[in-house]
Amino acid sequence: MTLRPVLSSLVAVVAASGGAGCSRECCTVDGFPILMERAPLGATLPGAEPAGGLLARATSASIEGGKSFSMVVDTGSPVTAFDGPVSRTLVSRTFQLHEATGDATAVTPLRADFQQINTIQLPLGPVGDSSIKPLGVLGGDLLRGYSVEMRLGGPCPPGAAPTAASPAPVCPSMTFWKHQGGNDGFFQDAGYAVLRFAAYGGGEINVQGDRDLFGLRAPVSVPPTRIVVRTCAAPEAFTPAVKPTSCCNPREEVMIATGANLSLVLATGIGPIVLSQSAWRRVAAQLDGQPAMLDAPLVIATWPTEIPAVWTTVPRVALVNLEAGINDPGPCAELARSRRLEWVANQQEMNSDVAACAESCDIDPREKDKAQNSAAYIEIGGRVPIAIINDNEPLLQGIRVDVRPEGPEIDGLLGAAGLGLGRLEIDYRNNPTRLILSCEKDAARDRCWTAARCPRLPDHDHKHLCFGLRAHPLPQTCAPSGCPVQ
Known about the structure:
Blueprint: H1 3-8, E1 27-29, E2 34-35, E3 37-40, E4 51-59, E5 69-73, E6 81-82, E7 91-98, E8 110-121, E9 136-138, H2 140-143, E10 147-151, E11 173-177, H3 184-189, E12 193-196, E13 203-208, E14 219-222, E15 228-233, H4 253-256, E16 260-266, E17 273-276, H5 277-284, E18 294-295, E19 310-320, H6 331-350, E20 354-355, E21 377-389, H7 394-403, E22 412-414, E23 422-427, E24 434-439, E25 448-451, E26 463-464, E27 472-473, E28 477-478
Parallel strand pairs: 5-9, 6-8, 16-22, 17-21, 20-28
Antiparallel strand pairs: 1-8, 2-11, 3-4, 4-5, 4-7, 6-9, 7-8, 10-11, 10-23, 12-24, 13-14, 15-16, 15-19, 17-22, 18-19, 19-21, 21-25, 23-24, 26-27
């Protein structure tokens, strides 16, 4: 892998020895939230929040005499980098992360200390627009040593400067946990959406590592850190009080599902959702009418030039776990099933005698008397910003090459603005790795909604505890579904 594909796939830092960003001895974190800032989005879109990628406040004795500087926090960058002339060998850096208060000169609490980390050095550009020039990128090689919680729309503590003013001031934060002890069942019962992922990418780059016992250097190997998220873009609006479209024949479940299926790489250092033109055409086909479009460049710190882009918004996106297994109908079909089953659960909670039951599409084909489990998902609404780039853009092609052949065809990037008012914990330490998702407690359902996986009930002796409803059993009698008798 040459340095140019490294840049095109947003690689920013090299792993230290052993394939990890640091050992436990090199890195000290205090477990408190680290207040962050948001870069500019890069375009002014009516109704969309102006906040872009995530920025931490950092210091290093070797950078600008120890003055604080902006450091992009990017899950889409497999490694950590600092600004400077291109170096073909590793550069050892010591740096610290502090609270970001909006005042670059203020003395703020030290939250994390990273000692003698092997990094790449290369010229970094501005982020979002030309107003902010970061001097570092915190990448996946360091993040993967923790379970990292990110609050994208958290409240602002006293004295902190908000980074977005619409519809209310928000202050993002990041917390490093050495491990996450809760299992999937615990989070499911608590209403969190757990999305499992396999890390993709990695491999050798043409940067030389440390000298061995014989004084020789070998190419550095980058660990796999790409997080690919199953996404349904622009599905129809849903409320559990209104019966969704019936699905009476399992062969129809894909055809009646609304929204466009996408595979996106999580990249918190970027603001918008970035889509290829071909992916956008699939999304646009799901929209009522032509949305407003705006020409503006996409500005990414790890890319050497501005990328021509067309900007717009979509009303909502959903990130959906794979529940169906090898018979994957796509995230939009699994989202539609979860919605139908939520409506059914809502009906059953209101009436324990006679209520709706699962329709034919949602019955387990192996056990006709039982429903299927619903997939966990988080839905983000409120004019989600989209930047559309050419399919042959080297940025996108580099990421696709990095994920192939194990991963799916990549449609684009899931930026921080695509997570809205969500709370995201990336549990790199668990096996299997997982995303743990929830919403800020005051978020309206049309802005952010989390549905945990809802397991089916085996019989009338058990009760559901799903979709924020009270515990309830199956009804004594199933009401007519309106579907033809099979």
